[in-house]
Structure formats: C-alpha cells, structure tokens
Amino acid sequence: MLRFVGLAMLPALGLYALWRYHVSVAGVDELKPLPLAQWNWIELPAIRGEHRRGDRGKTRLFQVHGGGAGDLAGAVVAARLDLDDAAPRLSRRVARALQRLSGAYLPRLVPERDERRGAFLLPLQHALSLVLSLCLALAARDLGVGRWLVGRRAQVAGRLALATTLLAPLGYAYRLRFDLDMPQPLVRSLAANVKPFLRDGDRLALLLPGDNSSVAAMIDQACLTETAPRRSGLDLLRRNTADAATLDEAARLGYRLALVSCVPEGWEDLPPNQAVLLRHEANGWRLLTAWAYPKQAFERRWQQILSWGPLCRRS
Length: 315
Known about the structure:
Blueprint: H1 2-26, H2 44-54, H3 60-65, H4 67-80, H5 86-105, H6 111-114, H7 118-142, H8 152-171, H9 173-176, H10 184-194, E1 203-207, H11 214-224, E2 235-239, H12 244-252, E3 257-260, E4 274-281, E5 284-292
Parallel strand pairs: 1-2, 1-3
Antiparallel strand pairs: 3-4, 4-5
Helix pairs in contact: 4-5, 4-7, 5-7, 10-11
C-alpha cells in the first residue's frame, strides 16, 4: 500500500519541485515568502469576515452543474441495491451538505455580489466533488466493476491512461495559456520595446487613444514593473487620447518621454497606425523610435479582456 501511495504522489511531488525551481529563478518578489513579522496580521479579522459573508454563497456552481441532483440519485440507487454501507452513507452526507448550503445561500443570492464570492466557491466545489467521486467509486466497486479491472490488459490500459493524463496537457498547452491570446502579446511587446529607453524612477506619459484603462493597467502593473527586466519607481501619466494638446500637457507636467500606442492618421510626420516613443527636448517632441504592429496579429481572434483601440484595431 505504501508503495502504491508513494507512486501516486510522484506526479504531485514532481510538479511541486518544478514550481519551487521556478520560484527560485523567477526573481518575482510576490513569490517569495515574507518573514512572519511582515505578515498583515491586522487584516485577519477583515479576511475572516469576508469568509463568513461568503459562506452564504457556496453552492451556486453545484446547482448549475447538477451535482446535488446526481448525488441524491446515487444515494437512492445505492440504498435500493443494498450495497456496502460506505457508498450510501457518504452519498447521504454529501446530499445533506448540499441541502444545508443551498438553503443558506439561495435565499440570499445577490447577483451583483455573486462574482466577488467566486473565490470562496471554488475550494468547496472541489472538495465536495472529490467526495462525490469517492461515492461513485465505492458504488462501482460494490457493483463488481472492479472485477473488470484486473489482469495484464487492464494494467496496461491503466498505465496508458495515467501517461495520457500526465502528458496530454502538453499537447494543448497553448489553449491553456490565455495570456497568449490577442491582444495581450502586443501589449507585452510594447512594454519590452520601451524598456531599453527607461531607467528606474523615470517619468513616462502613456498616450493610449480609446483605452478604458485596461491596456494602461497591464503595461504598468504586469509588464513594466513586474516582468523582467523590471523598471521600478516609474511615474506614469495615463491618458486615453493622443494629440498635440495631450503632448503639451505631458511636457507642462514635466514628462520627458511619451509612448503613443497608435498614431492617428495625418499627425505631423509620425508614422500612422504605429506605436512611437517620443522624447521632449528644447525644440519640442522628437521621435525616438517606432514599432509597426504585425499584420498576422490582426488576422487572429482577439479577446475582449483589453481595449482594442489603443492597439490600432477598431473592430
């Protein structure tokens, strides 16, 4: 038994070792545990209060997926077939838990606050789904399904299934990486192109025409300050317009660098529909460099997670 348990734990231990290696070499401060003295102990009462308020909202996903109905049906079937007591007992307990949680949550459902409770829903959903899977496995055992899973052929099939489970995600890893969906790669490319011209503490004006603050937030928080090579202490001026008046405002406020993510048509001698980096000098703004967006990027499907206008796509 210990051998089998140890073998079953190897994939999880390997994944944990890979994660610890990533933490050691990534250099991301957020991944490093802080000393206990720096923990925000004073926030614990507020966090616990959020948990208590979130306890009312644990089972919406169970109701949507029909988990409660399926478990109740399993309990009835197990009781009728007079199986070993473990399966129906666990099924009844899960059903009672779902009933109690539903009774506490559904009468208090407030749609506009439901999304904020999503983080509290997921752990409980996973925990009860594992118990439900155990109930079904015990019922299958009692029905004699285990007799079909013995012998050399069954062992080979089981090993193939395990190998497929572990290796299959590599085949569709691209679909799992939502951060590779357009237009996010374009935003990261913009930040990567600007970084060689920036030093820690510089002041940069972000002129992002048509932005709803989503592109500005990603450039600032995810690309410039949190992605290596990092630029810390930046003073960013965010504007969702790109014209001469906005540049004059940036110069008046003391910003010497300006990133225009999409140059409008006919704006002086700047290349239209490109991203440009400008520097303010004694005789006005001077073009440092420009980047054209790759045509193939506009042929791909774009997500709505970020504004399209600042990246020269209108629809």
